[in-house]
Write a structure and sequence with these properties.
Elements (H helix, E strand, L loop, with lengths): L1 H4 L2 H25 L5 H11 L5 E3 H7 L4 H13 L3 E5 L7 E5 L1 H21 L6 H18 L22
Antiparallel strand pairs: 1-3, 2-3
GO biological process, one term: response to stress
Protein name: DNA-binding transcriptional regulator, MarR family
GO molecular function: DNA binding; DNA-binding transcription factor activity
């Protein structure tokens, strides 16, 4: 039975969890200085990196660690803070989109330099460039296996659905 405790699979997942927890703690302290939670930063990044700077709410839930009701609560709060805006889907009345506002993009732009410094300090400089590339391949493969919807909505064309540009 003791050989199960020493199983390298347990070690691998334990190390991954410890690394994620350590990085999250460093990131959370930085983000708090910009009046953002880790989840709010994740939402802003997902939207900013999406076509048209917006996603359907269901796709945003699929791409994040949030449930659909969790995404609704976060988007409601961020909309009240002026960081996001919501619009109805013109082709499906049951759906709506969340998009980054000018204020949200400004907050993200102010936050990113320090965030990138922390990523460099605690993560990317710990690996050689080829190791980082290989790591990204491995993590993407694992992500795709455990969360096949992680890129939901990434291939949509907002021009065909959205007559309006992103607004404040």
């Amino acid at each position: 039975m003791s050989e199960l405790h020493d199983d390298p699979r347990i070690t691998a997942i334990g190390l991954l969890a410890e690394a994620f927890t350590g990085l999250s703690a460093r990131f959370d302290a930085h983000l708090a200085g910009h009046k953002l939670s880790g989840v709010e930063f994740e939402v802003l990044m997902r939207l900013a990196r999406s076509s048209g700077h917006e996603l359907r709410m269901t796709d945003l839930a699929a791409q994040t660690s949030l449930s659909t009701s969790g995404v609704t609560r976060v988007v409601d709060r961020m909309e009240r803070d002026g960081l996001l805006r919501r619009r109805a889907c013109p082709t499906d009345r049951r759906s709506s989109y969340a998009g980054v506002t000018t204020a949200g993009m400004t907050r993200l732009t102010e936050t990113l330099p320090g965030h990138l410094e922390l990523i460099d300090q605690w993560f990317t400089t710990q690996l050689a460039p080829e190791e980082l590339e290989q790591f990204l391949d491995y993590v993407r493969r694992i992500r795709d296996a455990v969360n096949p919807c992680a890129t939901a909505g990434a291939d949509r064309n907002p021009e065909s659905e959205s007559p309006d540009a992103v607004s404040a």
